[in-house]
Structures are given as structure tokens and as C-alpha cells.
Amino acid sequence: MILVIGDIIVDEFIWGNVTRISPEAPVPVVDVDQIDRRLGGSTNVVRNLHALGVSMDMFGVVGDDEPGRWILDNLKDIKAGADGIVIKKNERPTAIKTRVVAHSQQVVRFDREWKNAVLPDTHVMLRQAIIKALPQAEAVILSDYGKGVLTPDFLSDLMPELKGKIVAVDPKPQHADAYTGASLITPNLYEAAAMSGLEAINTDPQAEAMARALHERLNLEMVLITRAEQGMTLFDGDRIHHIPTAARDVFDVTGAGDTVIAVFTACLARGDSPLVAAKYANRAAGVVVGKVGTATASWEEIESHS
Asked: Which whole number is the average pLDDT over 200-215?
């Protein structure tokens, strides 16, 4: 069992084609073919764990609205535990990110969300639900999208309760110090640069310097930095490993970080070494960036991708 804690978002996609420019303004006109939704934010981590056949519970906040009910229904469809989701009637609406995609390329994205910290009573309910579920969990994923659930105060209160578990963090740089004592973090290059205070230069020596700096600053067991076309850099607490990208074609990087932390954590939870886990996560990232929109990777796809 893996617990996922973080910001819940509905990923909405408007698919279409562009054949002309608007006479009203110099912008493309998208002829819409279809509109669909996918589990996004921290629930995309859950969706990726489901694709791997891993059992999971989700902890977060949704509004008492149609998108919130849609989230709960879709989590139920993939057999994800949702007892730890707090439904707020008046505090905030469910976050929605809408992407307009034409010819497999994003044209624009618009976000409807509330970024303020959730109220203290909501954090109390979340903490109680998490502590109740912890005995059944091998690992915890903190999926921080900076939307008000994983605040520094809440994390400082929660982290001592998570001792003894694999604690994996998909970080927001402004919350860096609150991740102290986690097992691992999976920042991208720019997040790693912001947290380490180093320049975001995508070279092996610079990535190694970032990883070592974060490992020491946050008292981590390991650091996995995702570096786009340069692959990944893993510091396992002893050695540095630079892993070349497994991407063949890149159509859309939306949600790739969710896939990385889901696969990396799932592999660690089943007993794989950090290097083996990182190689699987790298392959999985190569699978999902070859798809359009928020995507997942199955074990079969991961095994066949090299």
C-alpha cells in the first residue's frame, strides 16, 4: 500500500484542429473535436500507481462541486482509497487545469484554482486520516503542487509521524526546508537549482553538485533529479549515477514527474535498489512523454521500452 498526499486537480483537455486565424485578433481558432478529463495533480500519481497494479490511498481536498464528485467517482473506478479526501463545501472549489490541444500541441492552458492554504480544521482531518492509514503503508508520496495542502506547517507536523516509511517527495522549491528527513525527492533540474542555490546548468557535474547539496541540506537518503533530454541523475547516498534519457519521441511532458515518482517509489517499496528503481522510472518517463496529455505507463510498456 502506498499513501499519496497532496493537491488534487482535474486535468481537462479540449482537443481540436487549427485551420485559420481569428479575424477578431491574431490568435488561432480551434475547431473542437472532443473534451475529456483525467485525474491530475496528486491524483495522477494515484492513476500511475494503478497502472502498475499497486494499491493506494489518496489524501487531499476537493470542493463540494461537480468536479470534486467526478474525482471521487474516478478514484472509485480505479479502486483507490478515498476516505482521506476532505470535501469542503464553502472553503474552495476543486482545482481544474484546462489545456487546449491542437495537432498534438498545447495552444493555451487556463487554470481555475485556489492557492491559499487549507483551513486548520481541514489539516487536522487530513492528519487524522493519514495516521489511521499508516500502519498498512509501505511508502508515502508527498505530491506538492503548491495549492495549499502541503504547507510547511502541515509538513513539519506530519513528517515525524512518517518515520519508518519510505517518504518520497515531488517538491515545490518554496517548501524545501519542510521536506527535511524525507527518504527522497524527485525535483526537475530547475527545482533542484532553486532549492540548492546553484545555477540551472544541465551538465553532469552541475547535476551532481545539486544532488549532493540537496542530500546534505535536507538530510535525505537519495535524490533523483529529472533532466529532460539529459535523462536523470541519481545520488543514492554513496554514488552518483547519470542515466541517459529513454525517450524516443517527446509529444507532451504533462504529468511526467508524477509517473517518475510513482514508479520510483513503487520499485523501492517492492525491494528494488535505488539504481534499478531509477532506471525503471526513467523508462516509464520515456513512455509517457511519447503520449499526448496526462498519461501512465504499465509494467509491460516499461519493460519493452529501452
From this structure: 95
